[in-house]
Design a protein that fits this description.
Layout lengths: L22 E3 L5 E4 L2 H18 L4 E6 L3 H11 L4 E9 L8 E7 L12 E9 L3 H12 L4 E10 L9 H4 L2 E6 L2 E3 L11
Parallel strand pairs: 2-9, 3-4, 3-6, 6-7, 7-8
Antiparallel strand pairs: 1-2, 4-5
């Protein structure tokens, strides 16, 4: 199965200027980055700017759950009203450094509805292996989308397994990091909020 996503649009290194906060070390010795609300909004704003430089999609699809908040922020920033969600999971649970399932699992693919002829942007909070994002993009293409682009706040390069680098596969990237990322809505570190 190919890791390539349907129709991609190159954006010149949208992740280059973003700086993430210092990382901590998790109980297993791996790096863990805790993002704050302001830092996450900065990443979403950078993605919105890159999308505006290209062209706004007609439909945003949030990869649930993590992509829900960034998708809604993007919808407001881009003044889009057609926001949909699809649940695609690739981790066994919500714990830090959770094990991956063998393949991404689409829980509710029919929630995409009819995307025939639509320019669609798939939005997620983080891309680790890239498999969840690719699965969601395939679902959108299967639902009839004429153009499918992807956006993530963070790419975790430590987990990336695609044949091509993330920058060649994901259309819009807020930033790139190494190690697990904890977003403010995950509630793992209350003083970060």
């Amino acid at each position: 199965m190919s890791d390539a996503l349907p129709t991609q649009s190159a954006v010149s290194e949208p992740h280059a200027a973003a700086v993430l906060p210092a990382t901590a070390t998790g109980s297993d010795g791996r790096e863990v980055t805790h993002l704050t609300w302001p830092r996450t909004e900065e990443l979403v704003s950078r993605i919105a700017e890159a999308i505006r430089d290209d062209s706004a999609p007609q439909t945003l699809v949030a990869v649930l759950r993590g992509g829900g908040i960034p998708a809604v922020w993007l919808a407001h920033k881009l003044q889009l009203r057609d926001v949909r969600g699809v649940e695609v999971t690739h981790t066994a649970d919500d714990s830090t450094n959770a094990a991956k399932t063998p393949q991404p699992v689409a829980v509710n693919p029919d929630s995409l509805g009819n995307l025939t002829g639509r320019d669609v942007l798939i939005v997620d909070d983080v891309a680790g292996t890239g498999h969840t994002l690719a699965a969601a993009a395939r679902l959108a293409a299967d639902a009839g989308a004429s153009r499918v682009r992807t956006a993530v706040c963070v790419v975790n390069e430590d987990n990336w397994t695609g044949r091509l680098p993330a920058e060649a596969t994901v259309t819009y990237i807020g930033t790139v990091t190494h190690g697990w990322v904890v977003f403010p809505w995950e509630g793992h570190d209350e003083h970060e909020h």
